[in-house]
Amino acid sequence: MRLPLPEPDTSAVLFDCDGTLVDTMGVHRIVWSEIFARYDYTVTDDWWADNANVALLPFVRSVVPDADESLADKLNRESMAMYMEALHLVEPLEHVVEIARATHGSRPMAVVTGGYREIIIPTLDAAGITDLFDVIVTADDVAHSKPAPDVYVRAATLLGVEPALCMAYEDSEIGMASARDAGVGRIIDIRLIDASS
């Protein structure tokens, strides 16, 4: 089963970045495994599955219970620097990118991410897909990132369309909650599609 293309009445198409357009989660796991090893913590498959997409402070506190925002921000800055050094490991998720390529030029498209611009732009550049999108909305552009609806509302506003007429591609519960609460008309959970088919 292939990912569905946007419906003819879809006014704009919105894509999450990490884990949707680009396979970055393995790199993030390598980085955070190294950071959390300093706290004598081993990142397991189950822990990563449960925590990889949660907000920064609870993410850090799941390993360092007494962490405050200052420590979480410090570790996050360090993780971003380490991630940038590993950008060569990042690859596009072709079964999703082919939707973006097929749609490019037919209607507006945006990247809608909870990531930070200083990481997202180089990631999209490394995958060679930045120019496919009219708008890139990141956590830097809103007061509250995913799972709040702000990033999706902002993207629809910048594209000049109603969220209800948009279609979103997502790979996480918090991303889908963000899109749903913004009123996005159709949300595709890419995890339900077999990428090999």
Describe this structure in words.
With 197 residues, this protein is an alpha/beta fold. It folds into two domains: 12-24 and 90-192, HAD superfamily/HAD-like (Rossmann fold); 25-88. It is built from eight helices and seven strands, in the order E-E-H-H-H-H-E-H-E-H-E-H-E-H-E. The strands form two sheets. It has a five-stranded parallel β-sheet with strand order 5-4-1-6-7, sandwiched between helices. Strands 2-3 form a two-stranded antiparallel ribbon. Helix 8 links the parallel strand 6 and strand 7. The radius of gyration is 17 Å and the shape is globular.
Order of helices and strands: EEHHHHEHEHEHEHE
* Major sheet description: 5 strands, parallel
The strands making up the biggest β-sheet line up spatially as 5-4-1-6-7
CATH architecture of the largest domain: 3-Layer(aba) Sandwich
Distance between the termini: 6 Å
Strand content: 5-15%
- The low-confidence runs, each spanning 5 or more residues with pLDDT under 50, are none
CATH top-level class of the largest domain? Alpha Beta
Please give the radius of gyration in angstroms. 17 Å
What's the average pLDDT? 94
DSSP helical segment count: 8
Shape: globular
- CATH fold name of the largest domain: Rossmann fold
Structural class: alpha/beta
Structural domain count? 2
Provide the helix percentage.
40-55%
According to CATH, the homologous superfamily of the largest domain is HAD superfamily/HAD-like
Total beta strand runs: 7
